[in-house]
Amino acid sequence: MRPYLFSVACVALSQVSAQDGWTRLSDQEAAKFWSIPHSSMTWSEFKGPDFDVYEGHAKSPLHGGAGIYMGEFPDFHPPAENPGISGRLGGYDVRWFESRQKDGLLRKETLLRVRPSEKCHVWIYGSSRSDIAALEKELSTYHLFSPRPASPPLKGSNQAMQPTAGRRTLKFPMTQTSSPAETRPLASGADLVLVRSLRPP
User: Fold this and answer.
1) What's CA 105's distance to the chain center, in Å?
2) Over 90: is that where the pLDDT of 144 sits?
3) Running DSSP on this structure, what letter comes out for residue 20?
């Protein structure tokens, strides 16, 4: 499939995107989609020709949000010089990479493969580590990250993924998506117009 270039600009990642193509999910739709009782975030989705992007924005009292990209051409590439921080996301061992967004919010992200044909870029951001921890805890309960048979790791990201006991078939409408907001090393600054783009590997 030929690479598809997709760009979406928004004033800041902490704001809900109003670009054409984004669909706001109701609280009931989001809970059903992620197979959870309720979510501490309001979710929007963008379905491209061969990718999906999901953005969640935290409800009060939390401050921050999360995003999930499903596809084969994420813009996020774990830095070779940074080994990351080991952790878990649902049934998967992952390596988290931390930074600070230009709007001043803390950010952590990882790259894993939850289906053989697609990569999954997950990012979480917040005003404090406790906010990020709360959002990460919720993401870990999503059916997308539920235990499943082991998959080969992505070079430079996951360790060999050895999910916990139990297997489940994932029925999830996925394609190939653009990667979310650009970040830079820990620094402060004003909000930035963020651009997503999909580039060939």
Assistant:
1) 16
2) yes
3) T
